[in-house]
Amino acid sequence: MGEAEQFDGGIFDASLEGGRAAAVIRFRTGCVEARVASGPCYELPYAGLRIELGGHSGRVVFLRGAAEGRVIFSEAKGFLEAVRERGGMTVEAAHEAVTSGINRDRRRGRGLWLIAAVVLAGLVWLIPLGLRAGVDGAVASMPKSVDAQLGELAAMEISRTGPTVDDPRAAAFAQEVVDKLVAVLPPEEREYAFKITVVENAQVNAFALPGGRMALLTGLLKRADNADMVAAVIAHEISHVTKRHGLRHMVRSLGVVAGLQLLLGDVSGVAAVLAQGATLAVITNYSRDHESEADAVGMQMLAKAGFDPAAMPAFFEKLKSLDASEMPKGLEWISTHPDHDSRIAALRALLPTAERGKAAVLKNSFAEAKAAVKGD
Amino acid sequence: MEIEVCNRPSFAHLRAKLSPGEVIIAESGSMASMTSNTNLRATWNGGFYTAIIRKLFGGESLFVNEVSSTSGMAEIMLTQPTPGDMVAIKLNGTEMFLESGSFVACTPGVSMSVGFAGFASIFGGEGFFRLKVGGNGTVWIGGYGAIVERELTSELTIDSGHLIAYETTVSLTGGLAGGLVSSFLSKEGVVMRARGPGRVYLQTRSLDGLATWTNRFLF
Ligand SMILES: [Zn+2]
Predict the structure, then answer these.
(1) Nearest-by-Cβ selection for A265 from B94, B171, B214
(2) Where are the domains of chain A?
(3) B154 reaches A (C-beta below 8 A)
(4) Out of B94, B121, B168, whose CB is closest to A21?
(5) Which domains does chain B have, with CATH numbers?
(6) Selection from B172, B157, B163 nearest residue B205 by Cα
């Protein structure tokens, strides 16, 4: 180690503007020297030097002179050893005091690390168990406005799917079906702003965004046999909204930390993440258990509103029978809603539990709505 | 560049006048007003990864605004969400940790990164990571209530939630002010002991009440 060895650090001294500055530290014969960027050089003689450890990390080495005030410090690697080497006998005692303290802390530290490791291992095992329950519980306690904000973020998904169909025969029909279904919801679930948009797109599909915005694709309207089938799909989508599947799925898939952030109400932060290319599918694709729940809840809703609950499994049968080559994109709804046969079976099994209310009478005609839209 | 803190101490805000070529970095969302010749450019807060880490662990925004003038003198007003004071801190190559939410603005010479603030920093209630500012320039921080600057000569005991900024030369240790049982029951007793050399900045009010309220949603 030669004279040239230097360390990045800083100095406290009353003569400096603001009382401190970054400095480059060198060990000279007889003294430590700190040179600040503005030029001046400050010295501390080895004689009477006190060495202390501290700072945010506990590893910042402070050198204090006999006189109060001037302190030279550095967190650089090898700084403490350099003090010892260059200061020699003069700093021996001060150095000894500090290093014995470090060794004692290291021994104690090892014990603490061991305890920390055991605790951490326990947490790693427990967290996945607790998290799902925790997330669901926490989502339940969040205000409904969060759903609306999320839906707002994803709203472009609707316009990206295709142009809006303005023809009142189609638009009014779809919204009337929605209103009929929503009318049978418990009051607290009716608070979402349910609004459906008919979108020109040949896919047999429909989707819901958190907060209540929904899209019905003309391909589905064209392929459905009757109003009950359309109502069946919409009831399923409404259930995604009322069971807050978008929010739950998002919290699950964005990871623990981002999830917690969202739970603390920081929607804008999550928005930034989404805007940076995280796919919106995070919001609109649901997990299988959410799909099953939406089917079950949707069927009850469908029946209670006076539609035929059998239309739900019937619609899936219909999709299944559609020839894939005749309609290349027709299986879209199935692919995002997988496991077709078991799904139909599960819905059939639920049929006896669905109590049908007074038969729904619609002011708008399904046939006219269907005729109003293009697309094959 | 001409920057002053107005309406101190209760509802402080920053008023900055920028000539062409002059730049100030402002926390996104702090902009309350600006003249039409102001140019705003959102940039990653200290670089992409720092921004993400800062977002996740520091609770700060992902973006900051780079504010400049397109022509002539641009005038902007920067505010903070909490009612309270703002102060300017001049950095001489030294480094500081800022608690979540206290950053308002800085001059371009100031570097921003995320630093591990030591295990005891958890007692500040914001996790282990802090926004770390360094380099040469001025940084403006805001607080809830008045802001008190203390040059540490001896050990100072600080109630958690009141510390908003401190130099990296300051060591913090967590502790309990009262007995163990009363501390656990009330949370009041969690304190930090700060030891210098270095400066700490304290806010006279604490967001702990609010934090307790939001933490209900965690589990
Ligand atoms: Zn679904």
Answers:
(1) B214
(2) 6-97, 142-374
(3) no
(4) B94
(5) 2-211 (3.60.160.10)
(6) B163
**Confidence (pTM):** 0.54
Chain B, nearest residue to A73 by Cα: B169
Distance A127 CA to ligand 1 centre (A): 28
User: For residue A263, which residues of chain B lie inside 8 Å, CB to CB?
Assistant: 217-218
Q: Tell me which chain B residue has its CA closest to the CA of residue A10.
A: B94
Q: Say which DSSP state B57 is in.
A: I
Chain A residues in contact with B219 by the CB 8 A cut-off are 130, 134, 137-138
State how far the Cα of A87 lies from the Cα of A31, in Å rounded to an integer: 8
Token pair belonging to A184: 């049978």
Q: Note down pLDDT in tens along chain B; length 219 residues.
A: 899 999 888 889 999 999 999 999 998 778 889 999 999 887 776 665 566 665 555 556 667 888 999 999 999 999 988 888 999 999 999 999 988 788 999 999 998 877 776 666 555 555 566 788 999 999 999 998 889 999 998 888 887 778 899 999 998 877 665 544 444 444 455 677 888 899 999 988 776 544 444 433 333
The domain defined by A6-97 carries CATH number 2.40.100.10: no
Tens digits of residue pLDDT in A47-82:
888 888 888 878 889 998 877 789 999 999 889 888
- Give the Cα separation of B73 and B55 in Å (integer): 33
Q: Say how far apart CA B140 and CA A18 lie, in whole Å.
A: 15
A244 CA → ligand 1 middle, Å: 12
Structure tokens at B100: 């979540």
Residue A343 in tokens: 């799904």
- Note the ipTM here: 0.80
State the Cα–Cα distance between residues B100 and A169, nearest whole angstrom: 54
A335 CA from centroid of ligand 1 (Å): 11
